[in-house]
Design brief:
The protein is built from 2 helices and no strands. It is about 55% helix and about 0% strand. It is an all-alpha fold.
Length: about 55
């Protein structure tokens, strides 16, 4: 969407001010997103409470 805004966002008087602001804010958000650490993988199974109960005889 940032590319669309950069190419097509200049079609109005308000857009002449809003487009550069939007592009800067989008760029800042992208840099923050790329700097976030990758979440560690969380094993889904086996989960202790999901184990079947031992049969009582």
């Amino acid at each position: 969407m940032t590319l669309d805004t950069a190419l097509l966002g200049w079609w109005g008087l308000v857009s002449l001010v809003a487009t550069p602001v939007t592009l800067v804010l989008n760029s800042i958000a992208l840099v923050k997103l790329l700097r976030t650490p990758v979440a560690p993988a969380v094993p889904v199974f086996p989960v202790s409470w999901a184990q079947p109960a031992s049969p009582t005889v």
